Amino acid sequence: MFDEDNKKSNLKKYFHKNGRALGSMGYFLLLMIVFLIGAPEVWIRPNLHQSVFVMMPTLLFMVIPLVFLVASGEIDLSFASTYGLSAYVFALIVSAGIDPILGLFAGVFTGAIVGAAVGALIVFGKLSSLVASLGVLFLIRGFLFVSTNSRSITLLEIDSHWMYPILVGKIYGFPVQVIWAVLFVVFSYFLFNRHVFGIHIHHVGDNEVSASQMGINVKEIKIKAFMFVGVGAAISGIFSTLITYTFFPTQGFGYLLLALAAVFIGGTPYWGGLGTIAGAVFGVGVIAYMEIGVVAVGMSGTWRQFFNGLIILLALLGHRLHGDRVR
Amino acid sequence: MEKIIELKSVTKKFDGVTALRNVSFSVNKGEVVGLIGDNGAGKSTLIKTLVGVHNPDDGSIEIHGKLVANWNALKARQAGIETVFQDKALCPQQSIVWNIFMGKELSYPFGFIRQREQIEVANKLIREIGFTSKLIDAESPVGNLSGGERQGVAIARALYNEAELIVLDEPTNNLSLNETQKVFDFIYNVKKSGRSVLFIGHNIYHVYDISDRFVILDRGEVIHMLSKEKVHTADDLMKIMRETIKGH
Ligand SMILES: Nc1ncnc2c1ncn2[C@@H]1O[C@H](COP(=O)(O)OP(=O)(O)OP(=O)(O)O)[C@@H](O)[C@H]1O
Ligand SMILES: [Mg+2]
User: Fold this and answer.
1) If I label B49, which of A104, A169, A308, B203 is the partner at 20 to 30 A Cα–Cα?
2) B41 CB less than 6 Å from ligand 1?
3) For residue A48, what pLDDT band results from cuts at 50, 70 and 90?
4) Is the CB of B114 inside 8 Å of chain A's CB atoms?
5) pTM for this predicted structure
């Protein structure tokens, strides 16, 4: 009797603790079922899922760090341009005949620097992260247009370098970057839930004053979170340049809203102090299948945004079941 | 007598308002200091300056007789000073265990935390401070707790960290009689173990009972420092307090 009660309350606790992640898993499964019923013949075609698998890593490298940042109580829009800038740095170095490994490091370093700069601007300049990062988004994008003269850079021979198959090659048709993305997600999960950095992110986003009174360096934590977003966007941008053999000046712009949507569909609330890595993975799944699925089932691409909007709203309504912010 | 911490001629202003004016103040080893004063007298500002949350605009801070530079909350905790802030300094969406270890997590090298160990400690502390509800455990969010229980978490945190000096800013606010008694027992225990306490309270009788020394703050200035030998009863202390307020 007592044991049974205990079991029940343990189960309840599990749902309570993981409700947001489970919720977004629910939306993902629901979307699968709708597609399966709506267009089964498309659904069993493996190339649809393959395209999704190519798209998901790109999104994951951007979305997972955004979960950290949103949980810390901030937001960033500039990542969509950092994505392009890092790819540009990478492309410049490679096309100058320098070892692509150096290009990779320089690109990722660029992402970290931009993240640190945006973070410092917000933390020390006391600017709103939404508005300030919007400024940086346009600033960097503008710089890319000006300095490239709106022309793209093609890196035809890049796949002959030894790192190419390691980063974005295929094993029996399976894209290797998926493995990197999985490792990234697992690492981030522990960083978020079992590492001092992730825990401080939670505290800072929950109650900044309490956190600083207990000796946590709030500014440092926030800047690090912005840097993580910059690094994630950089990895994502460089990977996509590797996959497509091209850098183009508008690169990444289209991911701005999709990545943010994935964070919120994933169940991370906008107010800070909470976040879920597992949920974000399902959020990315939902977005990726929407992007590719709507067209694959024969609907015109013009419907895509409509359905994206619908999903976001339904997801937010659903996540409301987990309640308001407790104070 | 050995001074644990000392403020020397500290002034603290908040855009225009002088919250502390030329305040000199110290806590000795093993003593309980009662800090009293009217609402807005600057008590919380004083202890926040002491524990590194506020930077003084003027004056200096010494720890064990040594001048400290760039004093901050982290350094204060590393120096063995734990604080129960008036606002409790909790994160309501986070679990009790994460709140107890906030800023002082138990971790492995590279910063991954010892979650299981932390939970064990937190569950033990919860039992010690006497949470009754069976539904509450170390992993429950603090937001689910009552005001008294939250105060309990804040005190448990200070208790766990084996501090040399424990600062309590109105810790018995919104506590029941029973809970208030627990806080006093806790203070006596700390004192018995040779550690120091700085206690802020509005109830003069409570402050009188537990303190060895009284510091009266009025509009940002220390106007009395009295050892218990000089104040024979709580009513005497009350009289002194009344006179300061009348002076306004
Ligand atoms: N962060 C702040 N910004 C601006 N003014 C402040 C700040 N903190 C305190 N003050 C002001 O400084 C003065 C002293 O406040 P303080 O909180 O130290 O008083 P207190 O003695 O703790 O009062 P109470 O008993 O009500 O807690 C008040 O006039 C208050 O308005
Ligand atoms: Mg106060």
Assistant:
1) B203
2) yes
3) confident
4) no
5) 0.94
